[in-house]
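Support case: oxa(dethia)-CoA complex. Customer-provided input:
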Amino acid sequence: MTKITAAITGVHGYVPEDVLSNEELSKIVDTNDEWITSRTGIKERHILKGEGLGTSVMAIEAVKGLLAKTNTKPEEIDLLICATISPDHFFPSTANIICDKVGLPHIASYDLAAACSGFINALTTGAMFIESGRYKKVIVVGADKMSSIVDYTDRTTCVLFGDGAGAVLLEANTEGFGIQDFILKSDGSGANYLIQEGGGSVHPPTHETIDAKMHYIRQEGQSVYKFAVTRMADASAEIMERNELTGDDIAFLVPHQANKRIIDATANRMGIGSDKVMLNIHKYGNTTAATIPLCLWDYESQLKKGDNLILAAFGGGFTWGSVYLKWAY
Ligand code: UT7
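Agent response - structure generated as follows:
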């Protein structure tokens, strides 16, 4: 029997119009372009402004564009998964709202929360439905409105994050293209290093939790950095080893965009040069679940059928992992 693999057959992204530069941030908090650029690689980020506009607004644009460019009819889609940690609401799922607004019929749809590793977890989940033969076409969206949970008086986090969405179409493939292997890990003992403490069932929102700013992201940057730099590189090196790949075999590393120094360390460990690393952190910052699909969107024109890609991520949880895939078009 022919093996079915899950291949990405299209990608589209969306970032809001408004741009927040390092220069502008330095007028809000005690920071400067030199610090942000040298420590993170970020120059600017896009911010979704406007009353009542949530993560779904960006995801809807990404999905609409994806359907149009791949000539896919809404009724062909079997499942939509939205990776996000800044959903429109705790419930209903942002995925349900996306499907309704895009005109996808009554299909399976749900959110998946794995912070900065959300996209690779959602992608591999979607792939399993296709590999099993159960579904033919799955949309995986990574979308986050990080500006809704960032404290713009906290210079240690507000410079890092931006808003955006990216979506891919996964289809069944019988020629061996698509997802070949993946590694997914988590370690909840790291929860307190990167967390939105308030608003959930442990600390439901009250005047006190709001006053204590518990609804915002809190990060112990240095501690997270130490884990991120080793775990992301480990996961990338391990997936290469077990698939007998060397740096020469890799067309691109597609890394989560949290810090250029973490990305450089991962590429170094994999034995690949900077020309093979997808990078857009300078213009979008860290868009959490959207970083990897936004990279694929930005670099789509440079990709060729059969290219070996390694996707790698690390984030809150902790969660981390890597995906090895063969580009299908
Ligand atoms: O995507 C999810 C996973 N997250 C990550 O992977 C992020 C991992 N962590 C990082 O990328 C880095 O730790 C940061 C970029 C967040 C921070 O860089 P760092 O080199 O670890 O800086 P630091 O936290 O050690 O701070 C160094 C100094 C401190 O001042 P003192 O104590 O040396 O006087 C900070 O107060 O830099 C100061 N600082 C700033 N200065 C100017 C912190 N934030 C800023 C800022 N502007 N925005």
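The pocket of oxa(dethia)-CoA is lined by residues 31, 35-36, 39-40, 116, 155-156, 159, 194, 221-222, 224-225, 228, 258-259, 262, 286, 314-315 (CB under 6 Å).

Case will auto-close in a few days if no follow-up is received.
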